[in-house]
Every structure is written in C-alpha cells, then in structure tokens.
UniProtKB/TrEMBL annotation, chain A:
The keyword Transmembrane applies. It comes from Paraliobacillus ryukyuensis. Keywords: Membrane, Transmembrane, Transmembrane helix. It comes from the Bacteria. The chain crosses the membrane at residues 6-23, 35-55. This is Uncharacterized protein.
Automatic annotation (TrEMBL), chain B:
The lineage of its organism: Bacteria, Bacillati, Bacillota, Bacilli, Bacillales. It is found in: Membrane. This is Spore germination protein KB. Pfam families: Spore_permease. Belongs to the amino acid-polyamine-organocation (APC) superfamily. Spore germination protein (SGP) (TC 2.A.3.9) family. NCBIfam families: 2A0309. The chain crosses the membrane at residues 12-33, 39-61, 82-107, 119-136, 143-162, 182-203, 215-240, 269-289, 301-318, 330-356. Keywords: Germination, Membrane, Transmembrane, Transmembrane helix, Transport. GO terms for biological process: spore germination. It is a multi-pass membrane protein. One of its GO terms (cellular component) is membrane. Its main location: membrane. It comes from Paraliobacillus ryukyuensis. InterPro entries: Spore_GerAB.
Automatic annotation (TrEMBL), chain C:
It comes from Paraliobacillus ryukyuensis. One of its GO terms (cellular component) is plasma membrane. This is Spore germination protein KA. The chain crosses the membrane at residues 264-285, 306-325, 370-389, 395-414, 426-453. It is a multi-pass membrane protein. Coiled coil: none annotated.
Length: 87, 361, 511
C-alpha cells in the first residue's frame, strides 16, 4: 500500500516538476533552473522514499536533538511550575 | 515590480498570525501553569509583547528600513549574515512545518475523524503553494477579505458562549501559583509575540513605513486581547481542570454552545477561525522562507524556491508528526529554546552590532 | 486574404479613368458583381452627352435619401422661395459646384469601395478621374429602440441598446449632455471592418486607463468581430478565470452611470451589448435599479444578493458536508428526520446532489433555447423531475429537492448572467470538495477562490476592491447604497482625479 502511494506521489511530483520547469525556463537564468532541477530531483527522491516507508529522516526531531542540552533542563524547570493536567 | 502591502493589511496579517496557533493551544498551556490566574499571565504577556513589537520595529528602522536579510548581512557581515540568516530561516521553516503539523493534527482529530493527518497536510500545503505563487499582495488581500469574517466569528463565539460563564471559576484571584503565573509567560511568549519576528522579513514591503510601529502595535494588541478573552472564557466556562485536560479547549468551548435548543455545537466557527488564521500563518512563513533563500542565493525571483520548499516542508511534516501529545511537549522544551535563541538573542546581537557600526562611523 | 495583400495585387490594374462607365465596371468587378450593388446611369443634357453613374449598396442606404439626392443634384432648381425641381438636368459645372459642397472627392479605388460598404452613394462623372461620395447611410434593417430583455427592472428606464452603434451612442449622448463626453472610433476586424467606439467623460476618466484601453483594442488582430463577446475575450486581463472582468449591459442607463463614474464604455457595431471597463466583482451584484429605489431598500436587496451568492455557491456542498461528515452539527431532531428521508435513497449524498444539480442545469439550458410557446412544457416536466416524483421514485431525498430549489432560486437572483454562470460552474467543484473533505474541503475551496479573486485585476483595478484592498470611502456604494445626496465621491480606485461628484445638499423641505 505504502509503495503504491509512493509511486503515485512520485508521478505527481514529476508532473509538478515538468509543469513548473516549463514556466520557469521563461523567466529564470541557467543557474536558477539548474538549482531548481537539482533540488527538485533530490527532494522528490527523498520524499518518495519517505512516503513509501523505505527510508525516514525526522527533520523536526533534528531540532529537538540540537536543542537537547538546553531544552531538557528547561523543560524540567518549567514542569516544576506546571500544576499538571487532569485533576 | 515590487509587491506592496498597505498598513492595514500588515496589521491584519499580524492579528491573524497572533491568533494562528495561539488561540487553540494557549488556554491549555497557560492554565497548566497558572491555573485560574492564567488570564493574568495573558495580560502580562500582551504588555511584554508590545515591548517586543516596539523593539523589532526599532531594529528594522535602525537597519535602514530594508530587507531583513540585508540588515542581517549589514550587521554580521557577509559570512556571519549567511550563518545567522540561515539560523533565522531554519526557525521560519520550523514554524511553517509546525503550523502545518498542528493543522493536520487538529483537522484529523477534531473535524474529519478517520482522514489521515498527512492527507490534510498535503491539501493545505498545496493551497499554500498556490497562495505563495500568487505572491504576498494576494495573500494580504485575501487575509483582508477574510478578516471581517474572522472577527465576526470571534464575536459570535464570545456572544454565544457568554451565557455559560461561571465567574466563580476565576476565583481566587492571584492567591495561588504566584510564581507559576509569571513563569508561564516564558513559553507563552514564544507562541505569540516572539513569532512575529518572521514579519521582519516582509516589513520592507509595507508601503507606509512611517506609521509601521502603530500598525504593528494595533495588530499585536488586538490579537492579544482576543487571546486573553479566549483564555478567560475557557477558564470561566470550562473550568480550570477541563481547560488543562483538553488539547483544544476552544473547540470544546464551541461545542458548549446551545442557544434556544437549535443553535447547537457550532464548533464549526472555531474551526473556521483557526483554519484560516493558521493557513495565513503558514503562507507568511513560507513566503519569508522563499524570500530569504532568494536573497542568500542571489536569485532574481523567489518563485523558484516555492515548489522545492513545498517538498521539503511536506517531507518534514510527514515524518515530524509523531502524535498529538508530542506537540505540547515540543512547545514546552525545544521550541522555547529555539525561539529565545532566534527571536531574542540573535536580534539582540544584530541590534548591538548595528549600533556599534553606527557609532564607529 | 488580408487587406494589404489585396491592395498590392489590385493596385496596378485598378486605376480610375475618366470614363464613368468604365469606372462603374471596375467597381462592380472588384465587388464580385454582388447583386446589392445598384448602379444608375444618367446622361446630362449637354452638347456632348456626359454620363453620370450612381453606385450604392442596396440595404445599407436609405432609399429615400438616395432618391432625393439624385434628383436634387441633377435637376435644376427653379423654385424661388421653395425649391421646385424642373425636369432639366444641370450643367456639368453646376454639378461640380454642387458636389464640392456636399460630397467628398475620392481618388483611390480602395477608399471608394470602403465608402460604398459603409452605406455611402458614389458618383462617377465622365471627364473626372475621381469619385464623389455622399453619405446616405441609413438602414431599413435597424430595429427601433425597444424594451430590454436581459436586465429587467421594475422602476427605471425601459429602453435598451440596438444593433446600430450610432443609435447606441446617441442613447448615451441623450443622457449625458456634456461636451466632455468624448468618443473615439476605430475599426477592428480585417474582414468584418467592425466599427468600435470608446466613450468616456474626459475630465473624469483616468488618462492611463484610456491609454490602456486604446492599446489593448489596437492590439487586436483578427478577421472577424461579430459581438462584444469577441472583443471582451481579447481585452480581458486574464483568460483562465471563471469570472468576467468586463461588464456588459444593454441598458443605456447602466452604461451612462458607469461612464459618469469614470469608466470607459466600448460600443461595438452590430450588438446591443455594450462593454464597460474596469469592473469590480461587486458591480455584478448591483443593478441600475438600486439607484432608483429608496436607499434602504436597495441596501437590503444588495444584502439579499450577497446571501444569494453564498447560497448558490455553497448550499449543495454544505448539505453534502453535513450529511456525510458532520452529522453532529445538525440538531438532533432534524438529523432524525433527515436520516428517515435518506433511508430509501440508494446513492451517496454526492451522487444524489450531482443527479439533481445536473438535471436542473439541463432543464435550465433547455428552457433558454426553447421557443416561448414550448416553454411551458419544460416547466411542467421540470416540476415533475425536480419535485415530488423524484422523491417518490426513491432516487433522491426530499431534503435534496429543497436544496436544489434554493440553489436554483438564488442563482436566478443575480442581475448579471455571466456572473451567475461562473458560480454555477464553481458549485460543482465545491460539491466534490465537500464530498471528499467535508467542511475542511469547503474552507480550502473558499481560500483558493478568494485568493484567485484577489489576484484578479480588471484593467489594473483589484477585482475585490473595495473590500480587499479595503477602501472606506467606496463602501458607500458597495454593499450599502447610501442616499444619493450623501454619495459625493466617485469610486476611488477607478479614477484618481476628479473624485468628488458635485456636492448636492439634501433639499430641506421641512419648515
């Protein structure tokens, strides 16, 4: 199932790529279109792998991971002031 | 042709941005800290928020009323500007993704039970792509168009809920949790006024820059008042415990509506307010992101970045969302740290370096 | 074939000569011996007989005028105070003298043919390498000014434009007797040579706007313009949008009011529909009658039309969203009766709604094309298909019939037909969105719709103004229609100069 979604997603994104590229080529210079093509290809591959559950990289967790040394103590301090949910 | 927005539109965008995530999460978070006194926390936040707004505006004026990314490069130099600029952009990116995640979560949990949140995320993102492709002017105009409806919805919500107010719920005033009342400001500020730093990215496009501060402040205060009233109503109507327990207390507030046994449960109003405000919030983050990248890569048009960014945002939102409980946890820890670094420390450094450079000259 | 090529090809052999009969033959050949080309030969009574040839296109000229002119020119006037024509023809010199007063001398074959086609009478005289053209335009085919059929009003002038551009411009001139009402004429269409006129009030209209309209009209390169719709497609700002960005009307008072606000009217020969630019979304929801009724009533009616927009766009989709996704929002008792109605219906709500909406659209199209005598048959059939019979047959629920009826009624409320069509189109999109994502889908659709609308411009004026961008002074004539004596500003975005109308204080009758 996930694979099917992944393939559909791939087809969708490639059609978006082509559609956009046709428009871009009129307004952008060589460097810009090259950047566009490169970034799109990389991102489409990433996103398709992601959607079809083959590969996963959690970007949001990356933020938590980077901020972890400060975030953890802060959360501990904050939670002492929180009165807790429920009752 | 440079796109321009007028002061009124800028003000409305600020108002809408303040309501975005805040109106749905804040009552719960604030009450978690200060219990019945959370409305006091809100009042203090609004006051502090006004100072934050004034500071951001002075920073903008100090930097010569130009593109924020140019200001950053002025302050930190070319290389430093690149690094700090990308730090700022990463924050904007986080904001866009986080708002997208919350929209997906809210709709799939509360409005459309059974639809996977990823589908919702995808649809909203596609709509945002359309909006950003149209440009800031169109986004501002649409926001202006919906503004009156949003205000009417808010007033209707207040009116319909007001018969259920039980003033006993706010008592005792400021007797318990005095320390918590003030500590609560720390995470609440990050969700409201500190997020407005994103607007530095589009401030350059406001046509009437002389009155910028006024528009910024009015928008900020209006938004603050709405958030305050929502929090107050949540405590009064739902009571402290229920407010804390619900992830989306304002939605429950909408469900409480019952007038003449016919107008019942019009939580659709809340969904409307929240969906539209959050959507415009995503659009603004998105457009600032694209403009920042345009500046740092020295491209002619920011439109080249729109679709690749859409993939990146969708990609991040797809995997980034673990479950609904993860969101408040994230807000209380990582988000606080990142917010204060990006929205307080970096602007402070920037301001200092700008002043130093000015004194040297 | 385009005109310049035609010229080149014919230039060499098409030279006028001094022989009138030869010239006549030349013109006849160039027009392919068309039967409407009428020629009359007269010989002047002089020593050497001089032939005079009259040419005109039958149907384009007024017969009476031609006859009068032929007689008046040719025959000697022997009356003293009153002209009485004798039966003798004038001399050649007299004839030249007379013609130099009332006629234009043409030497180019091409211009001669142009003037023939435009309903002029052309004279050839032996011994003159030129032709004389006399304006005898007048048509027996023009219908008179009749009551308009597309935008009916209860109160207000009932006349409407006709197919003749001159009558149409005259109808405006009759209403605006101001020397600063200027018109400019141009000819568009290489084959049809259609006359197009733009009219505006010089000291009110925005200069840039005139330039823009002029340049857009000049850019049109096409062989045929048959209706104002052809022009509209060329000059509109954006092609791929369901919304009209050019206003059209066959009501002279509506066009006159537009011109007075600083807009530009575009008249096209051969159609009673006159274009008006620029136009805002809100103009499609206003009728000229709003200004003839009392202001409070007009405001109320406008609010009603706003409501009709929402209803005609969203009623079916809200019904679908409520019954499929958000049953909890329906009051319990209503929900129970709804469920009971839908019990026997085999289709999901979307299919049910689509069946009914498509049926209704079919009926409506059928009703428009049918002759009036058969029209009543359609309404009977319509009442059956969209009524109790459909419910009894178990195809749709009774509620759905009501929903479709509300949609239908509200889509007839709009004064402007082309705006109603665009809403009809969008309604189906919203139904599909509602069936897949419920209210969330409707919200998304609304967002897309409003973003699209705010990206639209009509000749540079934002389509959604005065709401977005908001303009407080224009609010007096948007949803609200303030009393005429209070409305002292012209729309701000349309004309930047001369914004104030003449301030007219309310006459105080109280003592």
């Amino acid at each position: 199932m996930a694979l099917v979604v992944g393939i559909l997603f791939m087809i969708f994104s490639i059609s978006v790529l082509i559609f956009e590229y046709k428009k871009l080529i009129k307004i952008a210079d060589k460097r810009e279109t090259r950047f566009y093509l490169l970034s799109m290809v990389v991102l489409i591959i990433f996103a398709t792998l992601q959607v079809s559950n083959i590969f996963s990289l959690n970007i949001i967790s990356g933020y938590s991971w980077v901020a972890k040394p400060i975030a953890d103590p802060i959360e501990r301090i904050l939670s002492t002031f929180q009165t807790g949910g429920g009752d | 042709m440079k796109e321009k927005i007028n002061l009124r539109q800028f003000m409305i965008l600020i108002f809408i941005n303040l309501l975005g995530t805040a109106v749905i999460f804040l009552p719960s978070i604030a009450t978690n800290f200060a219990k019945a006194d959370s409305w006091i926390t809100m009042v203090i936040t609004v006051v502090i928020g006004c100072f934050v707004i004034c500071w951001y505006t002075t920073l903008f004026i100090e930097g010569g009323k130009q593109n924020f990314f140019v200001i950053i490069e002025q302050g930190f130099g070319r290389k430093g500007g690149f690094i700090f600029g990308f730090l700022f952009l990463s924050y904007v990116f986080l904001n866009a993704v986080a708002n997208l995640i919350t929209i997906g979560d809210f709709v799939s949990v509360q409005v459309l039970m059974g639809t996977p949140s990823k589908v919702i995320t995808f649809i909203v993102l596609c709509t945002a792509v359309v909006g950003v492709r149209y440009g800031l002017e169109v986004i501002a105009r649409s926001a202006e168009f919906f503004f009156s409806f949003i205000v009417i919805s808010i007033i209707l919500l207040f009116l319909f809920v007001s018969p259920k107010i039980d003033i006993q719920n706010v008592f005792p005033v400021f007797q318990m949790n005095q320390a918590s009342t003030f500590v609560g400001i720390i995470p609440i500020l990050t969700l409201t006024y500190l997020e407005l730093i994103i607007f530095l990215g589009i401030m350059e496009q406001v046509s009437n820059k002389e009155k910028l501060m006024r528009g910024y402040l009015i928008g900020g205060i209006m938004g603050g008042i709405v958030i305050f009233v929502v929090t107050f109503l949540c405590i009064c109507v739902l009571g402290v415990d229920a407010t804390i327990r619900q992830t989306y207390p304002i939605y429950v507030l909408g469900q409480k509506i019952s007038l003449a046994d016919f107008i019942q449960r019009i939580e659709g109003i809340v969904a409307f307010i929240w969906f539209f405000t959050n959507f415009f919030k995503i659009c603004i983050s998105y457009i600032v992101l694209a403009k920042g990248l345009q500046h740092f890569f020295r491209f002619k048009s920011y439109k080249i970045f729109i679709v690749p960014l859409a993939f990146l945002i969708f990609y991040a939102a797809y995997e980034g969302f673990k479950n609904s409980y993860y969101i408040p946890e994230f807000i209380n820890s990582t988000y606080v740290v990142i917010s204060y670094i990006i929205a307080v420390i970096i602007p402070l450094l920037l301001h200092l370096s700008l002043i130093i450079k000015k004194l040297k000259r | 074939m385009n005109k310049s090529k035609w010229n080149e090809k014919n230039k060499k052999k098409n030279k006028l000569t001094s022989r009138a009969l030869y010239n006549e033959q030349l013109i006849k050949e160039l027009l392919g011996n068309s039967t409407e080309l009428v020629s009359k030969q007269v010989n002047l009574e002089e020593e050497e007989s001089v032939t005079v040839v009259f040419l005109y296109m039958n149907g384009l000229v007024s017969q009476k005028l031609v006859q009068e002119i032929i007689l008046e020119i040719l025959l000697i006037d022997i009356g003293e105070a009153v002209p009485i024509l004798s039966n003798k023809t004038k001399s050649k010199e007299d004839l030249y003298h007379e013609l130099s007063i009332i006629a234009n001398e043409l030497t180019e074959v091409e211009t001669i043919i142009d003037s023939l086609i435009n309903g002029k009478t052309v004279l050839f005289i032996d011994g003159k390498i030129a032709a004389f053209s006399i304006d005898t335009k007048g048509s027996n085919t023009d219908r008179g000014v009749e009551q308009n059929t597309t935008q009916q009003v209860v109160r207000g002038p009932k006349d409407s434009f006709t197919e003749s551009i001159l009558i149409n411009v005259a109808l405006i001139r009759k209403r605006i007797k101001d020397p600063s009402l200027w018109t400019e004429q141009m000819v568009i269409g290489t084959k049809t040579q259609t006359q197009v006129m733009i009219a505006y009030i010089h000291d009110v209209v925005n200069e840039d706007l005139i330039k823009e309209v002029r340049s857009r009209l000049k850019k049109i390169k096409v062989d045929a313009i048959l209706e104002s719709g052809n022009i509209e497609e060329f000059i509109q700002d954006q092609t791929y949008t369901p919304f009209p960005t050019v206003y059209n009307s066959e009501r002279p008072d509506a066009i006159a009011a537009g011109i007075l606000e600083g807009r530009i009217a575009i008249f096209i020969d051969g159609t009673p529909f006159v274009l008006l630019v620029p136009v805002l979304l809100i103009n499609f929801l206003q009728t000229p009658e709003d200004y003839y009724q009392r202001s409070d009533i007009a405001t109320l009616l406008r609010c009603l039309r706003m409501l009709a927009v929402v209803l005609s766009l969203l009623t079916p989709s809200i019904y679908i969203a409520l019954t499929v996704f958000h049953q909890e929002m329906i009051p319990t008792r209503l929900l129970i009766s709804l469920a009971a109605q839908r019990e026997g219906v085999p289709f999901p709500a979307l299919v049910e709604a689509l069946i009914m909406e498509v049926t209704f659209e079919l009926l409506r199209e059928a009703g428009i094309r049918l002759p009036a005598t058969v029209g009543s048959a359609i309404s009977i059939v319509g009442a059956l298909v969209l009524g109790q019979a459909a419910v009894d047959a178990g195809i749709v629920s009774a509620m759905m019939v009501i929903v479709v009826s509300i949609t239908a009624i509200s889509s007839f409320v709009f004064p402007s037909y082309n705006f109603a069509i665009s809403l009809r189109m969008l309604r189906f999109g919203f139904m599909i969105l509602a069936a897949t994502f419920g209210f969330f889908g409707i919200f998304t659709g609304l967002l897309l719709l409003v973003m699209h609308l705010s990206s639209l411009r009509s000749f540079g004026v934002p389509y959604l103004s005065p709401f977005a961008p908001y303009n407080s002074s224009d609010q007096e004539d948007a949803i609200f229609r303030v009393p005429i004596w209070l409305r002292d500003n012209r729309p701000k975005l349309i004309n930047q100069k001369n914004i104030r109308r003449e301030r007219s204080w309310k006459v105080n009758h109280k003592k």
